[in-house]
Design brief:
The protein is an alpha/beta fold and 342 residues long. It folds into 2 domains: 217 residues, Rossmann fold; 104 residues, no CATH class. It is 28% helix and 23% strand. The strands form 3 sheets. Strands 6-7-8-3-9-10-12-11 form an 8-stranded mixed beta sheet, with helices on both faces. It has a 4-stranded antiparallel beta sheet with strand order 2-1-4-5, covered by helices on one side. It has a two-stranded antiparallel ribbon with strand order 13-14. Strand 7, helix 7 and strand 8 form a beta-alpha-beta unit. The longest helix is centred in the middle third of the chain and has 17 residues. InterPro entries: AAA+_ATPase, ABC_Ni/Peptide_Import, ABC_transporter-like_ATP-bd, ABC_transporter-like_CS, Oligopep_ABC_C, P-loop_NTPase. GO terms for molecular function: ABC-type nickel transporter activity; ATP binding; ATP hydrolysis activity. It is a peripheral membrane protein. Its EC number is 7.2.2.11. This is Nickel import system ATP-binding protein NikD.
């Protein structure tokens, strides 16, 4: 079994707003293993992007971070900002979503890549520009275009530039935040396969942050499902896809175009005042009385999968009655027609 390259334990990310304290990430615990592709999926607004940025401390100084983020023995949250600036890109690379907004419009693509080598590696201008050209070639862009500006590239080409920036220093872990957002189907698969191919070639690890469950099912080794700031399921990709263990995961699968295109009912809850008990219970067709009272823990089952659901185990008891008898409940499962393959 491969060892974890990144371990996150009980991570809480919160910040104050005029409406109250937003708990963007609440008790997140997961690991990314050496050479692994972990897909982090969930609806827009569930806290996926916040989690990716929290790993590299790219959030506002007003954001409160609690818990542990450990990369190969280094406690990221304890690093001084000066060391953190050196750490970013060198140890952990990141591809932020919406490259047209992330890239500097007044600097050429080649120069933006070259600056990485000049800052982190201390290279001279000519050597850095040469390396930048090599990175562009690596992601399928002619080095002759290194002097072109962001507005001169198509959406797919801009994503390739972002791949070059994220992998420029050969980091051990790459965080790709919605790398295929807004792209057509063919281009989406090209970019995704490019990222995965380069990560595999370097024997690096990838945290693929996406709302695209089908994409994660195709490319990831394991999948972690996030809902309302919490992780509700973690397991091998093929197992999560073929036999989802949480009702939310099952509902997400039903929302795919080829599987019914049935939108998840209800609304995403507020992260200022999430529902009591299980956060998914107001939208869940499998809910029962205890779901609104007891907040389930993320527990590992006999098959090695982590699931946060009262119906995933055989036992539960109410939070308000510590001495109440333990009642048995049937395990949640999708029907045979709810088995998918990508």
């Amino acid at each position: 079994m491969s060892f974890p390259v990144l371990t996150v334990e009980d991570l809480n990310v919160s910040f104050k707003t005029s409406k109250g304290v937003v708990k963007a990430n609440d008790g997140i615990s997961l690991e990314v293993r050496e050479g692994e592709i972990l897909g982090l999926i969930g609806e827009t607004g569930c806290g996926k992007t916040t989690f990716g940025k929290a790993i590299l401390r790219l959030l506002s100084g007003k954001v409160k971070l609690e818990g542990k983020i450990v990369y190969r023995g280094t406690d990221i949250l304890s690093l001084p900002e000066k060391e953190m600036r050196r750490f970013r890109g060198k140890e952990i690379g990141i591809m932020l979503q919406n490259p047209s907004a992330c890239l500097n419009p007044v600097l050429s693509a080649g120069r933006q890549i070259a600056e990485i080598y000049r800052y982190h590696e201390g290279m001279g201008k000519k050597e850095a520009e040469k390396k930048a050209g090599e990175m562009l070639e690596l992601v399928g862009i002619s080095s002759l275009r290194k002097d072109d500006y962001p507005h001169q590239f198509s959406g797919g080409m801009l994503q390739r530039v972002m791949v070059a920036i994220g992998l420029a220093l050969r980091p051990g872990l790459l965080i790709a935040d919605e790398p295929t957002k807004g792209l057509d189907t063919d281009t989406k698969l090209q970019i995704a396969e490019l990222i995965v191919g380069l990560v595999r070639k370097e024997n690096a690890s990838l945290l693929l942050v996406t709302h695209d469950l089908e994409l994660a099912g195709r490319l990831a080794d394991r999948i972690a499902v996030m809902y309302a700031g919490e992780i509700v399921e973690i397991g091998k990709a093929e197992e999560v896809i073929s036999n989802p263990g949480h009702p939310y995961t099952c509902d997400l699968l039903h929302s795919l175009p080829g599987k019914g295109l049935k939108a998840v009912s209800g609304q995403i809850p507020s992260l200022v005042s999430p529902p009591s008990g299980c956060r998914y219970h107001p939208r869940c067709s499998c809910r029962f009385e205890a779901c609104s009272q007891v907040r389930p823990e993320l527990l590992k089952n006999a098959g090695g999968r982590f699931i946060r659901c009262l119906l995933s185990g055989k036992e539960w008891k109410t939070e308000n009655a510590a001495d109440s008898p333990i009642r048995e409940q049937p395990a949640f499962s999708c029907t045979e027609e709810d088995t998918w393959h990508f």
